[in-house]
Amino acid sequence: MQSAMQIADRCVASFHYTLTDDRGEVLDSSAGGQPLAYLHGAGNLIAGLERALAGHRAGDKFQVTVAPEDGYGAHDPRLVQVVPKSAFRGVTELKPGMRFSAESSHGPMPVVITAIRGDEVTVDGNHPLAGVTLHFAIEVTAVREATVEEVLHGHVHGEGGHHS
Asked: C-alpha distances in angstroms, 92 versus 36, 88, 121, 149, 162?
């Protein structure tokens, strides 16, 4: 039986997705696994995807395109820095793609090494999908009312969510 409940604030929605970029390259997918469960209205998804899910019901299948400003933001060149190799104390071998946590004025920040030239290492603190237009193929699998605990905690409990 298909649920008549629509996705709205204080609902738990579950959905399968396939995420692709502008070239059609698959970036992530829940295919073959469990659907993603989230508490609508709690800011647990990127804004553009959460807005697009609102009003849908279990069984709905649709496509969503999310612009960078409604996804992971524009690529910020200020988050790309060149630092000396000596900043990586205790690390014997550095390679592009390696991830580290760097101290910033706002606390710890994840960075990835994007280039190494001599004694200089380029690190990027942008989210890997910053500046990328995201294309989602969505299939809503379930919609239910959130429990009081889920609303108070701001996330899903139980299957497909956080267990606590």
From this structure: 38, 9, 14, 46, 37
pLDDT tens digits in sequence order for the chain, 164 residues long: 445 899 999 999 999 999 999 999 999 999 999 999 999 999 999 999 999 999 999 999 999 999 999 999 999 999 999 999 999 988 889 999 999 988 888 888 899 999 999 999 999 999 999 999 999 999 999 999 999 999 999 899 875 454 44
- Cα distance between residue 81 and residue 113, in whole Å: 10
CATH code for the domain defined by 77-124: 2.40.10.330
Location of each CATH 2.40.10.330 domain in the chain:
77-124
Q: What is the pTM of this model?
A: 0.81
Query: What architecture is domain 11-72+129-153?
Result: Roll (3.10)
